Amino acid sequence: MAATIGVFTAAGCGATDSVPLSNAKRLRRINWQAGRALEILSHAIEYLADEYIHEVKQVSAHDPRMEAIQLLMAINREVYFECPVVPTFKERLRALFWFAAH
């Protein structure tokens, strides 16, 4: 079993239509590799966004730097949503009774 460095929620992370809303708000089990990737991506996004805001007078979605930020954000979401969902207490309890009955 992989080590867990933390559990995060998807609230505010810009869940996309490809992830069901019910899963977008669920806790995720983040292993150390995914956690490190998320950390590196977050730092890169923050750095590029700060640099962009300080240098640009008018924001444009077609600016290559903005496209780079959006690409990193999409990869960040992809890494996050590949992490397994933590079962709720109700799901764990149901599984316990199911295994006990069979």
Return residue spans where pLDDT drops below 50 for at least 5 consecutive residues: 1-17
Strand order of the largest sheet: 1-2
The ordered string of helix (H) and strand (E) elements is EHEHHH
Strand content: 5-15%
| Alpha carbon gap, first and last residue | 25 Å
Compute the CA-based radius of gyration. 18 Å
Number of helices: 4
- Summarize the biggest pleated sheet: 2 strands, antiparallel
* E-strand count: 2
Helix percent reads: 55-70%
* Structural class computed from helices and strand pairing: mainly alpha
Domains counted in the coordinates: how many? Answer: 1
Let me know the average pLDDT.
82
Shape: elongated
Task: Please give a handful of descriptors for the protein shown.
mainly alpha, disordered N terminus, 4 helices, 102 residues, 59% helix, two-stranded antiparallel ribbon, 2 strands
Question: What does this molecule look like?
Answer:
With 102 residues, this protein is mainly alpha-helical. The chain has one domain (4-84). 59% of the residues lie in helices and 9% in strands. It is built from four helices and two strands, in the order βαβααα. It has helices at residues 21-24, 32-55, 64-82, 89-101, and strands at residues 4-8, 28-31. A two-stranded antiparallel ribbon has the order 1-2. Helix 2 (32-55) runs antiparallel to helix 3 (64-82). The longest helix is centred in the middle third of the chain and has 24 residues, at 32-55. The protein is elongated and about 65 Å long. The two termini are 25 Å apart. Residues 1-17 have low confidence and may be disordered.
